[in-house]
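User: Before I run my own analysis I want an independent prediction to cross-check against. Here's the chain; please return only the structure tokens and, at the end, one sentence I can use as a sanity check.
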Amino acid sequence: MLSQKTRYTIRALQHLADHWREGPIRLDAIAEAQNIPRKFLTVILAEMVREGLINSTRGRDGGYELALPPVDIRYGDIIRLTRGSLALVPCASRNAHEHCNNCLPEAECRLRGLMLTLRDEMATMLDRMTLADEITLEPPFAGT
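Assistant: Structure tokens:
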């Protein structure tokens, strides 16, 4: 599962992408539109400024805006910045590999093989998709 921080970061960046080239967007406007706690959003946006994905402008007309065109910001990069890895288990991470506790030796573990395949397929898809891509909205599941 994606962490709450990763989900908030993606939603905030999607909001800024929706308002690309409209000038700085105020923190309160992002927080309200995306239902993100203001304090949490402040931390997230500061981190994204340090990473070079967004710019901040101080003052009365200040706010936040993407530092790069939406087409240049890939979902895979956002997840790696906030989560560290796309892998669902530590032994399937390409960049943050760790041996799993209480598991088979990696050379014998079919679950690891499955998770590596899944990780690679997911990485391919997330590295192909950018903030500029249209995303189809899906109806809620029945009973939710």
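Sanity check: The chain has a mean pLDDT of 91.
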